[in-house]
From TrEMBL:
Belongs to the HMG-CoA lyase family. GO terms for molecular function: hydroxymethylglutaryl-CoA lyase activity; metal ion binding. SUPFAM superfamilies: Aldolase. It is an enzyme of class 4 (lyase). Coiled coil: none annotated. PANTHER family: HYDROXYMETHYLGLUTARYL-COA LYASE (PTHR42738:SF7). InterPro entries: Aldolase_TIM, HMGL, PYR_CT. This is hydroxymethylglutaryl-CoA lyase. Its EC number is 4.1.3.4. It holds the Pfam family HMGL-like. Keywords: Lyase, Metal-binding.
């Protein structure tokens, strides 16, 4: 076993060391073998598509995207958002998407939908009354800075948490799972560096109101591993890292590095987007989430196993080759190329192989 593999898998105690260049500390959290399963939440159909410009993507394309991701082994796929199409036009028709997904793709699969307010929850409940079982999970969110909260939710952090608390209570009473998001956990497009203590407070409140997990959103995509570790240390003062997930945008090309830092800290769930799709309407310049292909390749043959239901991959999990194909397919539907580095490398490799075959 390599030195890196031993470092990733063997963590007998929590340790710290000072990095003199930045005056910060690096952290190691125990990672017993039975906790080396990594869960991926595929957010491409929601977070990946919500910022697309131009005409609204047809519902049948969204359905095919979701079903293909499930066939590749994904077991948790964000299906859309119950938000006003006035504010996020690409999320129009989420109810139609949920209704149209083939029942065979629902077994042991979670299809969470973002619900930003009581109106959205009422719309979801109406759908569930008419079509029981189309989803079993919602996501709620709050921001770690006042400026982002006002831009995204048109209210203060305190007001947004009060609204989310009601939504969470009603959803759990209905038997739905609730996942939380804390946005702008490292940098804010309006306020600069985010106060990590505020991230801790918001995240703890989301968990206390009933969220089973909170995904920490590095929304701007500007954060670096040492900054992610500083934030995680502060959040871990009040929250078990096992209840946290990582959501890293890749604007500055540090998404995978930040994921690895969070993985080494103790997080075992990460959001990613097929083909690197995405962006945020309220974070100017932010690009997509870390690509699912890039994350899968990074963890391939490592001490960690990606959970999933693939029937074509020898070890189960999520099929990297299929996800790469899906990334190119949806990118072409959107009129561009996949931005996944791994996806581009796989396509180039396949092109070379086909060229060689044609010469035989």
């Amino acid at each position: 076993m390599s030195f890196l593999a031993k470092q990733l898998i063997t963590r007998p105690t929590i340790t710290t060391r000072t990095l003199s260049a930045h005056g910060i500390r690096a952290y190691s959290i125990p990672a017993p073998a039975h906790k080396n399963t990594v869960n991926i939440v595929e957010v491409g159909p929601r977070d990946g598509l919500q910022n697309e410009k131009g005409s609204v993507i047809p519902a049948d394309v969204k359905v095919e995207l979701i079903e293909r991701l499930i066939e590749a082994g994904a077991t948790s796929v964000e299906a859309g958002s119950f938000v006003s199409p006035k504010w996020v036009p690409q999320m129009a028709g989420t109810a139609d998407v949920l209704k149209s997904i083939n029942p065979k793709h629902r077994t042991n699969i979670h299809l969470p939908v973002l619900v930003p307010n009581k109106k959205g929850l009422d719309d979801l409940f109406k759908l569930l009354d008419e079509h029981p079982g189309v989803t079993d999970e919602i996501a709620v969110f709050a921001a770690a800075t006042e400026s982002f909260s006002k831009a995204n939710l048109n209210c203060s952090i305190a007001e947004s948490l009060a609204k989310m608390s009601e939504v969470t209570r009603l959803a759990t009473e209905r038997g739905l799972r609730v996942r939380g998001y804390t946005s702008v956990v490292v940098w804010c497009p309006y306020e600069g560096r985010t106060n990590a203590s505020k991230v801790r407070e918001v995240t703890k409140e989301l968990l206390d109101m009933g969220c089973y997990e909170v995904s920490l959103g590095e929304t701007v995509g500007r954060g670096r591993p040492h900054e992610v570790l500083e934030m995680l240390e502060e959040v871990a003062k009040a929250v078990d890292p096992g209840k946290l997930a990582g959501h890293f945008h890749d604007t500055y090309g540090t998404g995978v590095a930040n994921m690895l830092a969070a993985l080494n800290f103790g997080l075992r769930t990460f959001d990613s987007s097929v083909g690197g799709l995405g962006g945020c309407p309220y974070s100017p310049g932010a690009t997509g989430n870390v690509a699912t292909e890039d994350l899968l390749y990074t963890l391939q043959d490592s001490p960690y196993h990606v959970a999933g239901a693939s029937t074509t991959s020898k070890s189960g999990g999520i099929d990297l080759e299929k996800v790469s194909d899906i990334g190119w397919w949806i990118s072409q539907k959107l009129g561009r190329e996949s931005v996944s580095r791994v996806g581009r490398a796989i396509k180039a490799r396949k092109s070379r192989e086909e060229a060689l075959k044609s010469k035989l």
